Amino acid sequence: MKNKTRLWAALLACALFLTGCGPRTTEPEPYPEPAGSETAKTVAYVPLDDRPDNVERVVYLAESLGYALRMPDRDLYRTALDGQPLNSNGTQYGDMGRLYAWVLEQEAAGCDRYILSLDQLLSGGLVNSRCTTAETVAMPDGREAPAAQALEELLAVLAEDLDNVVWLLDSVMRLAPTVGYAGGTLEEYNWIRDFGAGARETLAEDALTLENVFESYWRTDGWDWEKFYDDVVNKLGEAGVDISGENYYRPFGVLAANLDARERKLRLSDQAQRIIARPGHENFRLMIGIDDSSLEDCIQKNEIAYLRQGLRTDRAGNPLDWLLAGVDDLAFKAVARMYLDETGWWGGTAAVQYYGGTENDPACDYDFQPLTTVVAEHLDLFGLTESGNPLAAGLQVLVLTQPAEEESKSAYYEALLRDLRECRERNRPVILIDAGNGRYGTAFHEKLTKEAELGWLLSYAGFLDMAIVTGTALSHGVARYAYLQSGEESETAERAFARTLADSVLKDFCYKNVVRNDLLAYIRNDLSGDPNNFWVPEIDRESLQDRLERGMESAVGDVVKNLRRSNFFALEPGGERGWGGVALENYRFPWDRAFEIGMDIRLGAFTEPHEKILGIYYQ
C-alpha cells in the first residue's frame, strides 16, 4: 500500500510539474552575501581555535540572533599541527600578545559585548593549553608579563566600562595531550590517558585546596607507581620506541611536563574566578567546559570540584557562571545565553524523549556523566524545565541514544520518526539529537532524509562527541525558539539560521559517515598518509581535495533536495516560508586532517510555503 501511495504521489508530482504547478525553486546566490543590517549588535569574539565549530558556525548562530561577530585575523588564533606551516609569530599556536592588543582595540572602539576564550588568550589555543608550561605572555608594549598578570590587566580594562558584558570561556583540561602536536605520540597519549583516568582520592571541604589538588595528580595513595611505570616502558619498547639508556626515563619527563601544564592551567582558571568574584565584575560571565573525560574518579574529579565551589550566583541565587560537559560547544552556549539574557528570556518547558535504551549511561567513552544528566544540566543552562507531558511542553527534544540491543536498532529510530512526524503534524517545535555515536551507520540518516522534513527542525546535532552534541543542539534550538518568540524579523538572521541547520545536517549525514570513511581509506591505502595530518608524511593534497569534492557532490544530493522542499518552523501554522535553493562550494580541510571539513553554503531566496501532497512536500 505504501509503495502504491508513493507511485500515485510521483505521478501527481509529474502532472503538477507539467501544468506549471510543480516544484518551484530559487537560484542560490553568491557567498558571502552582503553585510547584514546596520542595527546588528557587535560582539568581539576571540575563538578557542580556527576549527569550523569555533569560527563559521559561531558566526552563523550569532547572525541568526541579530549579532555581528567581530574577530581578529585567523593567523592570530590558528593552531598548526606538527609539520604544518607555522603562524606569522613563528609558532604552532595563537599570538597571545597581539590578541590582547586586539581586545584593547575593540574596547577603545566602543564595543560592549565580548566572548573571549581564555585558552586562546593565555595559552594560544585549546591544543597548546594541554602542553604549554610557559609562564609569560608577550605584551603589546614589549613586556614579558606572567600570564596571570596579563589576565588581571585585561579584565581590569574591560571592567572599567560598566556597560560591558563579558563572557569568558575556559576548560578543564582533558586527560591527555594531543597526538601530533609538539611531538606528542599516540603511545604517549594512551598511557598518559590511562594514568589520568585512574581513580584519585576524593578531596572535600577544607581539604579541597589548590595545592592538595596538585598533589592528587600523582595518585600517591595505594598507587603502585613502579609497576605502572615499568608496564609503560615495556609497552613503548614493544611499539618500537627506543627505551635504552637515558631513554628509559623519558616517559617520566613527558608525564611530569604534562602535569606541569595541567597545574598551570588550573592556576589560571582559579585566577579568573578570583578576579570576577570581586566587586565591579557583575557583568562578567564564566562558562567552563569539561574536556574529554572518563566515568572513573579521574584526575579531573578534584579539579571539577574545586572550580565548582568558585561558581557565582546573583542575589536571587541565579547562576552567573556555569561548569558543564563539552568544550567545542562553549561559544554556541555563550552566544545563545547572551541572547536569552538580553531579551529577557523567561524560560519554558521541554519534553525530552529518548530512543535506544541507553540514556542512563555515558553516551561515549569521553563522557563522565550519563546522557540524561548532560541533557538535564544543559536544560538548566537555558532555563528549561523538563516536562513529562509532550502535549503540554513548549519544546520537544528527541534523542536517539546508542542501541541497547543491536537487533532493535531499526525499531528505535522508527519510533523516533513516528513521534517526529506527529510533532510536525501538530506543529510542535523539535530539537533533534543523534547521540547514537555512529552505531546506526547511515540507516537513521537515510530514513530521516526520505521521510522527515529536515529544514523544519529548530536544530540538529550529531557530528562530534556526545556532550558537545547536546550543547550544540540545545543552544541552537533554544536560541531559535526564543528568537521566534521575540517577534524579531530579519532576512540576514533567517538566512544565517538556514546555514546553521544546513551545516549541521549536511556534515553529519553526508560527510561523517559517508565521504569521510572513503577518504580515510583513500589516504591510508592509496596515498600512504595519515588522515590526522596531511603534512606528516606529506601527501598529494590536490588529489585528496578532488576526492573530497567529488565525494560530497555525490553524497549531498538527496539531503539538499530535502532541504529545498522544506518549510521553516513557524510558531503559528500558516506562517511558514519555504526554503529556496541550496548549493555548496569551497570544501576545505581547516586543519589539514580528515576529521572535519569546512564549506560555504549558498542560499536562494526563500519561497512561498511548499505544499504537502500524499505525504510528500513539493516546491
What does this structure look like?
- The protein is an alpha/beta fold.
- The chain is built from 19 helices and 17 strands.
- The strands form 5 sheets. A 6-stranded parallel beta sheet has the order 2-1-3-6-7-8, sandwiched between helices. Strands 10-9-11-12-13 form a 5-stranded parallel beta sheet, with helices on both faces.
- α13 links the parallel β9 and β10.
- α2 runs antiparallel to α17 and α6 packs parallel to α10.
State the main characteristics.
alpha/beta; six-stranded parallel sheet; single chain; 619 residues
Number of strands: 17
Q: Calculate the mean pLDDT score and round it.
A: 92
Helix content: 40-55%
Describe the largest sheet: 6 strands, parallel
Short précis:
The chain contains 19 helices and 17 strands.
SSE map:
Elements: H1 2-18, E1 41-46, H2 56-63, E2 67-70, H3 96-108, E3 113-117, H4 118-123, H5 126-129, E4 136-138, E5 144-146, H6 147-160, E6 165-172, H7 186-197, H8 210-216, H9 225-238, H10 250-276, E7 284-290, H11 300-308, E8 321-325, H12 330-342, E9 348-355, H13 371-381, E10 384-386, E11 395-400, H14 409-426, E12 430-434, H15 443-451, E13 459-461, H16 466-486, H17 491-526, H18 541-555, H19 557-564, E14 582-588, E15 598-603, E16 611-613, E17 616-618
Parallel strand pairs: 1-2, 1-3, 3-6, 6-7, 7-8, 9-10, 9-11, 11-12, 12-13
Antiparallel strand pairs: 4-5, 14-15, 16-17
